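Figure 6 in text form: structure in, sequence out.
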């Protein structure tokens, strides 16, 4: 029976993953800001076969709340087999360009809060000497594009941090997987004009994540075709790249 911690548990991708683990009879410790959505998620997972679901209200950007959350989690689960970090926001790049306070807060939402949280989790995993830390970053972190470089820079920081952390924890039997979704049909992207052919359903991405964790993938592009897309984008020479509207 898997013991699963999910931060940002009410997000569409996290819910899709949790449903698959629930079918395997997993035990959950779910963390999010919205009590009503947490209750709805818990009820859904119990129907699908979850052995037990414990709920914890926390804003991931409240760094001072991280230790108590982790302490409560360990009291319930004793050990964490899988920790999925799935919280974040999608900022308006133009607003961030004009408002330093908003820009910095969005970097905290998507970068600093993730790093703070997985630093504490890494220390727990190091004590356990087993388990998987799965962190949702983004394809946006692969290169700084003018349309979303604030968001992308935060995700790039997370990806680089996870790469170093993966090398550190590998030596004690712990796996770290960096998940890089592309466009996903979620409430966070519903108002964006996205190419339909590139937009994935959260259920498909969730299945890929669950399978990727089982196979101990290091970096997972979801869907997989984003690996090729981002390879091409990373390969564009800077003199050309800076002239593109990406």
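Output sequence:
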């Amino acid at each position: 029976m898997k013991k699963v911690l999910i931060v940002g548990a009410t997000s569409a991708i996290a819910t899709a993953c949790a449903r698959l683990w629930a079918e395997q009879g997993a035990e959950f410790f779910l963390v999010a800001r919205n009590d009503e959505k947490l209750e709805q998620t818990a009820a859904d997972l119990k129907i699908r076969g979850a052995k037990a679901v414990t709920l914890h209200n926390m804003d991931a950007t409240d760094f001072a709340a991280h230790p108590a959350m982790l302490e409560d989690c360990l009291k319930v689960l004793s050990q964490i087999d899988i920790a999925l970090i799935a919280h974040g926001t999608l900022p308006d790049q133009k607003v961030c360009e004009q408002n330093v306070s908003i820009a910095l807060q969005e970097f905290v939402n998507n970068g600093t809060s993730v790093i703070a949280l997985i630093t504490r989790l890494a220390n727990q995993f190091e004590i356990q000497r087993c388990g998987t830390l799965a962190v949702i970053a983004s394809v946006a972190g692969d290169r700084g594009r003018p349309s979303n470089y604030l968001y992308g820079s935060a995700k790039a920081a997370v990806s680089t941090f996870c790469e170093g952390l993966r090398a550190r924890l590998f030596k004690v039997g712990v796996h770290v997987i960096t998940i890089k979704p592309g466009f996903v049909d979620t409430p966070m992207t519903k108002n964006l004009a996205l190419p339909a052919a590139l937009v994935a359903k959260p259920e498909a991405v969730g299945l890929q994540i669950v399978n990727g964790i089982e196979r101990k993938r290091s970096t997972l592009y979801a869907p997989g075709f984003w690996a090729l897309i981002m390879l091409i984008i990373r390969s564009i020479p800077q003199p050309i790249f800076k002239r593109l509207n990406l």
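Caption detail: The chain has a mean pLDDT of 96.
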